[in-house]
Amino acid sequence: FYDFFGKITGKAISEDGLVAHYKFENNVQDSAGNNHGTNNGASFVDGKIEKGLNLNGNSYVELIDIDLGEEFTISTWINRKTQTGNNFIGIIDKLKRWETGYSIAAYPGWDGLSFIGYTSESGWFNVLFNSENKNEWYHVTVIYDNGMIKTYTNGQMSNILDRTGETLTKNSLPLKLGVQGEDYFNGLVDEIKIWN
Questions:
Q1: Which of 54, 106, 111, 125 lies 20 to 30 angstroms, CA to CA, from 83?
Q2: Is there a contact between 54 and 28 (Cβ–Cβ < 8 Å)?
Q3: Within the chain, what is the greatest distance between any pair of CA atoms?
Q4: CA-CA distance, 178 to 78, in Å (whole number)?
Q5: What is the mean pLDDT of the chain?
Q6: Mapping DSSP to helix (H, G, I), strand (E, B) and coil, where does residue 113 land?
């Protein structure tokens, strides 16, 4: 596990440990391996880098169960639209609500995004990214390192939560893009990268 500066800014110079990379160039294929997705109604539009994934509030992409262990980094570009509802909405989601897992999520009443989930001892956590404007691109990164959680927005550190010694609770749910339960994300996503 390496915390290369490039992972945080979206201009990575090393791909060591890269287990999945979704470019969304008119497909949901993994350009780094075989963790290909299944598209359930999402379309492709102009993104941050060439094409991007358009999640219109009624669509999602299902990936396989990617087991990330206790040291991983997830980064992506997100362009959030107006959202309604009363629950967290998964953008990159492996959360079994109120029980296990994790999610980079939006909440309709907040301006910002969150990395939410559960650790073994303390349970629920919510680590915020910096607030953002609707209809603008933001690069977000979360680094999880044996209970130490760091979030970054556009290359700048947003927040830290120290739960060193705790483990991230696991489940066998597939990783999904754009949905959590019955709540769907409305916005664009591009260049998802996952390191383990």
A1: 125
A2: no
A3: 43
A4: 11
A5: 90
A6: strand
Q: Residue 9 pLDDT more than 60?
A: no
Rounded to an integer, what distance in angstroms lies between the CA atom of residue 1 and that of residue 161? 19
pLDDT digits (tens, 9 = 90+) for 62-84: 998 787 889 999 999 999 997 77
Q: Are 186 and 83 in contact (CB under 8 A)?
A: yes
What's the pLDDT score for residue 10? 55
- Structure letter (DSSP) for residue 184: E
Cα 59 from chain centroid (whole Å): 16
Distance CA 93, CA 23 (A): 18
Contact present, 11 and 141 (Cβ < 8 Å): no
- CA separation (Å) from 70 to 18, 54, 100? 15, 30, 14
Three-state secondary-structure class, residue 96: strand
